Amino acid sequence: KRIVVLISGGGSNLQTILDNCLSGEINGRVEAVISNRPDAYGLVRAKRYGCEAITLDHKQFTSREAFDEQLQATIDEFSPDLVVLAGFMRILTPEFVQAYLGKMINIHPSLLPKYPGLHTHKRALEAGDKEAGATVHFVTPELDGGPPILQGKVPILPKDEELDLAKRVIAIEHVIYPKVVGWFCEERLTLAEGDVIFAGKTL
Ligand code: GRF
């Protein structure tokens, strides 16, 4: 399968996907990595892996619509089966989301539906939660609101600060995200009328 990954930053999730493609755990190849930030370290990871590493700086565009149109055109050059959002920190227009419905997934650092949006670890700590985690979901027009595919849970320990929790959560992200990408590439995962179908069963 052909995969395009969108990033804005460090790209540690991207790295686990690249590694799993190389090892054969994921039956696919990352054809291109696209970043909206020119200085994203994930672009270095992409070059090292040997795929296209493209910067599309959102600041060069006059509107969100214009940026998303160019982003879509750039993605479509690679005819991907799957678009993976891996720390891509941009809100997407409904038109863009619609174009990849059922073919685009995201990872979010909370146990959705809890804490969509930013500062998830801070909010979990402030709420006194006993556990936190990450969610891989299909992307729908509602921000962080698409149907969940897989969650990874971690405990919140009494002395945890935001950074402690962030480290524990990202470690579980690195386990669950390549797993889901692998399932998709094996055609075990589809989105049908808003429901996730995994291996023939509705999740
Ligand atoms: C992760 O915490 C992910 O859940 C969120 O952005 C972060 C990306 O980290 N969407 P990295 O760039 O993959 O290291």
Compact overview of the structure:
The chain has 203 residues and is of the alpha/beta class. Belongs to the GART family.
Any overview of this molecule?
The chain has one domain (2-202): Rossmann fold (3-Layer(aba) Sandwich). 34% of the residues lie in helices and 26% in strands. The protein is built from six helices and ten strands; from the N terminus they run βαβαβαβαβαββαβββ. The protein has helices at residues 12-23, 42-49, 64-76, 94-99, 120-126, 162-185; strands at residues 2-7, 29-35, 52-55, 82-85, 104-108, 131-138, 148-155, 189-192, 195-198, 201-202. The strands form two sheets. The chain has a seven-stranded mixed sheet with strand order 3-2-1-4-5-6-7, covered by helices on one side. Helix 4 (94-99) links the parallel strand 4 (82-85) and strand 5 (104-108). Helix 1 (12-23) packs parallel to helix 2 (42-49) and helix 1 runs parallel beside helix 6 (162-185). The longest helix has 24 residues, at 162-185. The mean pLDDT is 97. Bound molecules: 5-O-phosphono-beta-D-ribofuranosylamine. 5-O-phosphono-beta-D-ribofuranosylamine (GRF) is lined by residues 7, 9-14, 86-87, 107-109, 134, 170, 173. 5-O-phosphono-beta-D-ribofuranosylamine is lined by residues 7, 9-14, 86-87, 107-109, 134, 170, 173.
Q: Compute the number of structural domains.
A: 1
Q: What is the general shape?
A: globular
Strand-and-helix sequence, N→C? EHEHEHEHEHEEHEEE
Count of DSSP H/I helices = 6
Quaternary state of the chains: single chain
**How many E-type strands?**
10
Secondary-structure blueprint:
Layout: E1 2-7, H1 12-23, E2 29-35, H2 42-49, E3 52-55, H3 64-76, E4 82-85, H4 94-99, E5 104-108, H5 120-126, E6 131-138, E7 148-155, H6 162-185, E8 189-192, E9 195-198, E10 201-202
Parallel strand pairs: 1-2, 1-4, 2-3, 4-5
Antiparallel strand pairs: 5-6, 6-7, 8-9, 9-10
Helix pairs in contact: 1-2, 1-6
Bound molecules: 5-O-phosphono-beta-D-ribofuranosylamine.
